[in-house]
Amino acid sequence: MRGIGCDAQTVCHTSEQEGTAMLITVTRSGGFAGREKLSALDTSGRTDAADLEELAKRAVTPVADGYRYRITVDDEVLDLQDPCLSDAQRTLIRTVLGVGA
């Protein structure tokens, strides 16, 4: 399954306890060569940890009242959410669902 959101999948693990670190993982796939790039970042001990953790929380927070979509074509699955849809995705969603995207 490919990412939720615009371009990549972001998975954040955190605890509600103050002073705990966050693990942020991003996977990018596709492009001309079709290569996948996976990288993880642990915020513990970083001077910019608070900024990164706030950015990650904002990045994975769904758009208020935004729709989420799952497009499946044969064995390919793509999860998306508004407003991060390409024109082709938006047109396909409108055509298949029969409603606006």
TrEMBL record:
Top-rank lineage group of the source organism: Bacteria
InterPro entries the record matches: Emfourin (IPR049457)
Identification of the protein by name: Metalloprotease
Species: Streptomyces virginiae (Streptomyces cinnamonensis)
